[in-house]
Write a structure and sequence with these properties.
This protein has 14 helices and 17 strands. It is of the alpha+beta class.
């Protein structure tokens, strides 16, 4: 086993980002494009035409181990940290998407110009992707004209600012919000969180708001500059029946001035093997870009819920981000494959946290669901005429739902955070869990509405296969889908140390059904031969 970094040569010179990236100072990074020669071939494949930030020459960079699985790599790294020692490496790259940033801008009602730093400038939107079904419209212009906006984008040669990200400056963590604990019946915090997220059909049109669920007694709310760990679930889209499951992400950073969360780094996982209709790339990215990029921003598609854990020290959040940094290196080079039914955004995030030492409460499939899965496999094979769909049908019904459904992963993490806050870490707790229990100052719930546009309002994310089936139209002709082109990983980019794929949960039932089919076919053939004789 060897340790390697994604950088293979000198980092190019360049300006720093316009603001901190998560926990780290902007001065630690250089803004460049993803095609610079010292970036490893695998990430360069995905980020060649994108603006990224990479650690400056001489700054410690997160690496990864070779010849091991992604999560074994994280477990070994986490175990190697000496007591009291904090990880000090930076993410190998951060997808910033835009080289420039403008704060405190005021857009004209028709979004044709803006006032920034006391001067009126021409304003334009970034290009709309062809597969993006909706776009900025009059309702969007009215929404942004009524408030100050932080922008990411680039200045054109004619003095026009072309915006890629529009972030409402009033979307902030409100430290004045009163404490309003969850009303958890019989101590069921997860169910109480589910009810909160689902209020008003997920709150697509409900304003941004903060609710403090817990805070440590006797500690003043001096949150500015404090480390923060965020857990986020994005809801269901209003025009894509394949997106009822929502999306899940973990983030790390610091609370900015006035409760600003825009610079928190979100660890976002999407399939690398298709070209997203939204232009999403799997990478750590700032929260404002994650939510409000005109094409890829989740807030343009659906409402979201965020749990913000405010901490007194950055030990826990550095452990979490360090774990995700290593997983990204393995993910880009395809040591860790993405799978919608086995290793999606929830599965990757939950397994990464577990490998780092934070084991979330599991939500195993029921016995009835497991029994149904055995029937669903041949039924899906007959109906869909696809072995892949038969496998997925079985796996959706049998997977731990905290790894499969973003909503359940969110509830599980929230229940664990509040339990650590209220009860503290046990003697058997890992160093990460002990750090969380020791350093938690407050846990706040933030509701994020859907940004106004021509897109239909979204809703909350489903939490079970049965709920999903209840949402998808019965008539296949009515199902809304967005076909996306494949992006296969070139064989010549596969590193020689990559381990072969592990066995899938559907392998055993598939083998059983195959044997049963052969036995049944043989019996039928014998019977037919006997009849003819």
């Amino acid at each position: 086993m060897a340790l390697v970094s994604l950088a293979t040569a000198a980092v190019p010179d360049g300006p720093p980002p316009a603001s901190p990236l998560g926990l780290d100072d902007a001065a630690d990074f250089v803004v460049t494009s993803g095609d610079y020669s010292s970036l490893a071939p695998a990430p360069r494949l995905y980020f060649a035409k994108e603006w990224i930030a990479v650690p400056r020459e001489g700054v410690p960079v997160s690496g990864h181990a070779t010849g091991v699985s992604a999560f074994d790599d994280v477990r070994a790294w986490s175990s190697s940290l000496a007591p009291g020692r904090k990880p000090d490496a930076r993410p190998p790259l951060v997808w910033i998407g835009s080289p420039e940033r403008v704060r405190g801008a005021k857009l004209a009602p028709d979004a044709s110009s803006m006032v920034a730093d006391g001067a009126t400038r021409r304003f334009a939107l970034a290009e709309r992707l062809k597969l993006n079904r909706s776009w900025f419209d009059a309702s969007s212009a009215s929404f942004f004209a009524s408030r100050e906006v932080a922008l990411r984008g680039a200045w054109r040669g004619d003095g026009t600012f072309e915006a890629r990200v529009l972030w409402p400056e009033d979307w902030r963590l409100d430290a004045r919000a009163p404490v309003a604990p969850l009303e958890a019946k019989d101590g069921d915090t997860a169910s109480a969180l589910r009810a909160l997220v689902r209020e008003d059909r997920g709150g697509a049109r409900t304003p941004w708001s903060t609710r403090v669920l817990w805070e440590r007694a006797g500690v003043a709310r001096a949150w500015e500059g404090k480390p923060a760990l965020i857990v986020m679930v994005n809801g269901a889209q209003g025009d894509d029946d394949e997106a009822w499951g929502g999306h899940y992400a973990i983030g790390t950073g610091r609370i900015g001035r006035g409760g600003d969360l825009a610079d928190v780094l979100v660890d976002n996982f999407y399939s690398l093997d298709v070209v997203s209709e939204k232009g999403i790339l799997a990478a750590p990215t700032p929260l404002d870009a994650y939510l409000a990029d005109l094409n890829s921003g989740q807030a343009w598609y659906r409402p979201s819920a965020i749990l913000v854990a405010v901490l007194a020290d950055d030990d826990a959040v550095r452990r979490v981000q360090g774990a995700f940094d290593r997983v990204y290196a393995q993910f880009w080079r395809h040591q860790l494959p993405y799978g919608h039914s086995t290793m999606n955004c929830s599965g990757i995030s939950v397994d990464t946290l577990a490998a780092a030492g934070w084991s979330l409460p599991a939500a195993p499939a029921s016995l009835a669901a497991r029994a149904l899965a055995w029937v669903a496999m041949p039924a899906a094979l007959v109906k869909e005429r696809s072995l892949s769909q038969a496998r997925i049908a079985y796996e959706y019904l049998t997977q731990d739902r905290s790894r499969l459904f973003p909503a359940v992963a969110f509830e599980s993490a929230g229940a664990s955070l509040l339990a650590l806050a209220q009860a503290g870490g046990s003697a058997a707790a890992s160093p990460l869990e002990q750090a969380l229990a020791r350093d938690l100052v407050a846990v706040a719930y933030v509701h994020v509405p859907q940004l106004p546009s021509s897109r239909a309002p979204g809703s909350w994310a489903v939490a079970s296969p049965a709920e999903y089936q209840g949402k998808v139209p019965k008539d296949p002709e009515d199902v809304q889908r967005v076909p996306v082109p494949p992006r296969p990983f070139p064989g010549n980019l596969r590193d020689p140390d990559l381990l072969p794929p592990g066995r899938r949960p559907s392998d055993f039932p598939l083998a059983v059904w195959a044997v049963a089919a052969v036995v049944a076919a043989s019996a039928l053939a014998a019977w037919l031969i006997g009849r003819f004789r």
